[in-house]
């Protein structure tokens, strides 16, 4: 077997082009590219505004089966497909999410893709990048400081200090900050109250930035954030304490999408990174809509499996931004099928066609689900070295029975040359005009019915249960005018059910709604169906212990 | 009277040159300038390393009288003098500090200079700039998370959790975070303990970054940070929990100095910004030493008045970095002399030569103090519109009695054309070879004697008093090998004494040492002589309420 290079070795050996050249490929003049070093740039808001009248390219969603420890390679396939489309003569842009800094010091940092399908510069993308997440942290915490300051100076808005909804954030895995009592130390420091920190990607400001169409829209949404409730239960908004203007100023640069490149020097937009459970888990609307103006094809991805990621992409992002996806790619691997078929991780190296066949139920469910949104589907089998021909064929045969096609892709090992067939197929589907996209439920369906629709139609659950308090809360929001918002499901990503150990394609299970939260600025109702951790901790031996700069100035231990 | 434009109007009307052109003036090749937009860049560490063998230019310190509400214009004069030196044919670079983000939302943001002596882009410099402070915040808080994580997983280092010395930081004015109890919520969140947040500029990581000569030195100093004590009182260092490598990685880019420009398109380095009380209040050593390699003249400033700022510049920064200043400029104004002479702020508009003469005692003390370091001195009278000729003459006459010269400067109104005389005088002093710089006290003087030396020689105090516990602590540190460190005085900036209301040139006062702290990474002992606020609060009506983006995309209300 040929030597296998690590992702970081491949990334470091890449011949990067100056970012101005990458921008020029898309017709972005140098004065509208704001460089961050020589390999990253922001695209100016002015240039973006100028593109308004232009025709949109085709939008391709890359989604996946439920994630397993075997690894699926959704981002790798997104990047590979972008390169593949460029290879066959289409002008294509990849749109992916930014990585969070904090978790890199707990476990190893995530590459943006893998093998010969990566976005670079990998180190920067795992560290401060262009500062977007820091700006979001600042804007979020400015609002928090203004709330406590408002209370301190007399509480003109009559905030019930037991019902402050806005916490603070930090882009760090720090369990000690999950739950704190602040404002201790006497009169000069304010009114002691219980609060805490979430990780920055869980901030509603992050979700807002990713759903806003421009700075005006951003400012309006920031103003709509519910920061607290009064004694009479009426909400207090960020605009009530005049926080929206300053928050917008802090986010001015962060709103501009980041341009980087793939290993094959094709353009990639990396912008925004909301949590995929308590938020919608997609890159920014601004990045996607801008890319659509500049390219024939835009390949983007959504968080987790298609049950969570694609559903939110369609029902939240596409609905709100008026996007019409032309095709969807569902990424699967023979290994993951085997795990879904009951094989343990340590036995994945052995051929097991029967287990592959059995595990395909999970893939099949996702294929049929995505079709419910009216979007044509193709399955990408991301090739792993130990896969056997019989296993691959089993997946192909299974997918054929669903009226779809599964295509073997070798982009991890070969770059764009290994994914030409998929690229051609995507073009065929997208240009067939077959896409008849529509969201799963209409805006005017009652909130609880929306939850039931998702649970039954996508998860194949038997019922949704919720306490009276939850149902009452949903009704109150409907009365307050929030009934037309879409639902943002927070559920385990490992199963169609709420039990992470239930692989395959379970049916008839119960979805218990533990809690609902209103993200009035982002514009969705979060429905929590399990333990949702919004501030991770560090492990016993955090990866930070092995991270350092070597004598050549390269970062060791981050990957 | 001609119309007076605001600083921001002048800054916005400036004709900025591309930052690559500004760098080229200093001989920095484009590939060694890492751009942040088109008007900011970092100078690569590789380029800096290459300059090692080159001859140094002349170093000029700009310092001031004790600050008064009248305003002195130290940064304005620093920038003006840089432009003035360029105007008379010297290649000059200005080195100043970066601004802190948080305070801009409380009171109006600070310009970098004023009138026609400013550094631009002003908006960016008051917001995220090149992300240095965010990187410092991240590195500081990573260490904090690692400490609590270490305790959580078994506390192998036997940290006494009552004696954790490392707090967290945020670049925000947030009084609610001054004192908190963290790790609440049960077993999964750790051991509850009292802690709190300081503002980022107060972080020891900031002081370390500003005193480190390169990344290796940075890593060593970060490792030397004392994070806590054990039950047996022995210190636990950051290196003991293996935090130094990852912190260095987070600070890799932040260590590279930032290049921007003055209104007259001359190069300015803006890098680092440690608190001027619990830290040393100077821009980074890397920026200053790099500028000295690239220019004939480097003009830099120190925080607050000369009693604090210049003393720390000489005794900490110059001592540690081996810098030899060639001349010092002390900035004064006729208005400030009047205030020192007893005039109230509302009466500053009226001529009062007698008060000016009386107030000159403050200026005179600073002139003589700076001379004690062996550095030749010139006084810059920063001209204000309402100053009268008689008042200016009174200052000049007074300074002449001290064997020095006071020169009227009109750079605020006229830019470099208004400060030519000062520029020529500075060149004359610097090239006279008269500078015989030496710090005030030797390394091997006992710590308490160092404090007494500063208090008596610079403040003209009668005595220094301290509890036995403070003296014992200093002795313990001497025994542990920290006795050779310099002292970093934390004293009110408004007076030579510890009473902020005592203007002029008091003598014989008592300096009470309330507390001492060891910054073992930065390499100094902080001596606290009053209330030192390390986390500011927001006012009743924070300036954030008036900050917004206008329809042209300009920021309103920040200045």
From TrEMBL, chains A, B:
NCBIfam families: PRK13505.1. It is an enzyme of class 6 (ligase). ATP binds at residues 68-75. It comes from Pararhizobium antarcticum. Pathway: One-carbon metabolism; tetrahydrofolate interconversion. Gene3D superfamilies: Domain 2, N(10)-formyltetrahydrofolate synthetase (3.30.1510.10), Formyltetrahydrofolate synthetase, domain 3 (3.10.410.10), P-loop containing nucleotide triphosphate hydrolases (3.40.50.300). It comes from the Bacteria. It catalyses: (6S)-5,6,7,8-tetrahydrofolate + formate + ATP = (6R)-10-formyltetrahydrofolate + ADP + phosphate. InterPro entries: Formate_THF_ligase, Formate_THF_ligase_CS, P-loop_NTPase. Keywords: ATP-binding, Ligase, Nucleotide-binding, One-carbon metabolism. One of its GO terms (biological process) is tetrahydrofolate interconversion. The keyword Nucleotide-binding applies. Its EC number is 6.3.4.3. This is Formate--tetrahydrofolate ligase.
